[in-house]
Amino acid sequence: MHENRLFNFNFILLLQGLLVSQLGSTIYFVTIAIWIKDNTSSAATMGLLGVATFLPSIIIGPIAGAFVDRWSRKKTIVFCDFICGIVPIVIAYLMIFHPEEKTIIVYSLFLAAIISSIMSSFFRPAVLASIPNLVSKKHIIQANGLINSSFNLSVVIGQALTGILIVFISAPLLVLINGASYIFSAFTECFIRFDNKKKSDIETNKNSKNLINELLEGLKYFQSVNGLFPIVLTYSGFIFFSSAVVIGLPYYVEIQLNQTKEWFGYLMATTGVGLLLGSLLVVTPLFKALDKSQVIIYSILISGVSLLVFAVTTSTSVAVIMSIIRGCVFGLLSAWLPSIIQLVSPEYLRGRTLAIFSSFTTAALPLGYILSGLLIDFFEHNTKIVYFSCGLFTIVSVLPLMINANFKQLVRSNN
After folding, report:
1. DSSP string, 273-314
2. Helix (H) or strand (E) holding 15
3. What is the DSSP string of 221-262?
4. Cα(279)–Cα(228) distance, rounded to whole angstroms?
5. Cα–Cα distance between 14 and 151 in angstroms, integer?
6. 222 near 228, Cβ under 8 Å?
7. What are the residue boundaries of the structural domains of the chain, listed by start?
């Protein structure tokens, strides 16, 4: 139900559900990354798993957006969380009762990643498209900031916990925790009243000539907003070059920093701290007063420089600081950019425009994962060359945005 208050019952319920499920998901991700390293010793395998995690959502993302505009968003969100809870429970079963079948478990991880990716392609646009129905227009940016803050808080807690828990608790039990967190979230989301689309909008989508026309309508509208594509493309490039850090991090910790595997969790956690700080910044009055076009440009430039430093340092302290900086930039941008789509999109198109945005940004991750995984293996797990190159390309990628007038006008008109 749409309310003038930011912290209304329905929004808070959605917020806690996202927090709990993301906490379990973070524990799962770190656990699986360490399990793959210990059992396969292949960065390429982790990179391919990253592709399996995101490729399906890239392919069906725009289609999912059209269905989100047709279906009940509440039922979509609950169903996706429930399926995402069942999948890791099956993985945990295989790890507990068939630990010797490592090949089968790896294949199962790929299948689980594909299923979760499909669910995510429906879940994310459904959640984002529902935000304007949960809070008033003046609170949309703050709501996105809080959602990203809850997400990043879960990442911080989950990564720090996993770095400790992995020493005392077996991987199968940590995977099981992920499944339970999603089931719990699905249950609590059943009580949210946020399926507020007008009946006329639903009928308009259902009675459209065909799905292709609906997809083209969403894409045409997306293209009609001057300055929107340059923002999305630059942000996608930023994600692409940043993804190398995740794939190479276990080797960076072991070879360059000469630390134990617990530091993988610690560095991921410090990145999460940055993500949280960046998301919280969006909620503050200070951010509202800033020129957002300059914020985007200088944030990405700073992130590129921090990656250059991260690439060459052997100091854990410097690595921690650079991780926080990069996380802060990502947290700020990921919290604020969807707000532009939400503000410029009409209700009946919102699922499609947000899905298009997600498809572009999501596509950058698997491409970065697979390329960085192959390069890190090619350079015999020496991450310095790959990380440094990504830092340089991050800096170069933002230069065209600096001279784009449409981009600046769009950002300033949706401040």
Report:
1. HHHHHHHHHHHSHHHHHS-HHHHHHHHHHHHHHHHHHHHH--
2. helix 9-40
3. HHHHSTTHHHHHHHHHHHHHHHHHHHHHHHHIIIIIS---TH
4. 21
5. 12
6. yes
7. 9-413
Band of residue 304 on the pLDDT scale cut at 50, 70, 90:
very high
HSE toward the beta carbon, residue 206, CA cutoff 13 A: 10
Confidence category of residue 199, pLDDT binned at 50, 70, 90: very low
- pTM, entire model: 0.72
Q: Are 358 and 61 in contact (CB under 8 A)?
A: yes
Mention every residue, 6+ apart, whose C-beta is less than 8 A from residue 104. 94, 98
Q: How many other β-carbons are positioned within 10 Å of the β-carbon of residue 199? A: 7
Quick: pLDDT tens for 34-52: 788 777 766 677 777 877 8
Containing 211, the helix (H) or strand (E) segment is: helix 211-224
Q: Is 135 helix (H, G, I), strand (E, B) or coil?
A: strand
Query: How far is Cα 106 from Cα 279, in angstroms, rounded to an integer?
Result: 34
Rounded Cα distance between 39 and 92, Å, is 16
| Nearest partner of 413 among 274, 244, 228, judged by Cα | 228
CATH of 9-413, one of 2.40.280.10, 3.30.360.10, 1.20.1250.20, 3.40.50.1970: 1.20.1250.20
302/198 Cα distance (integer angstroms): 43
Residue with tokens 């926080």: 324
Angle between helices 228-251 and 211-224 (to 10 degrees): 100
Say how many residues make up the chain. Answer: 415
Q: How far apart are CA 157 and CA 379, in angstroms?
A: 33
Q: How far apart are CA 68 and CA 60, in angstroms?
A: 12
CB 63 within 8 A of CB 215: yes
Query: Is the CA virtual torsion 61, 273, 390, 399 positive or negative?
Result: positive
Task: Give the contacts of 52 (CB within 8 A, at least 6 positions apart).
Answer: 110, 113, 114, 117, 366
Ordered DSSP codes for 329-382: HHHHHHHHHHHHHHHHS-GGGHHHHHHHHHHHHHHHHHHHHHHHHHHHHHTTT-
Structure tokens at 44: 């390429």
Name the nearest CA neighbour of 20 among 84, 92, 89, 76: 84
Tokens of 390: 């990504």
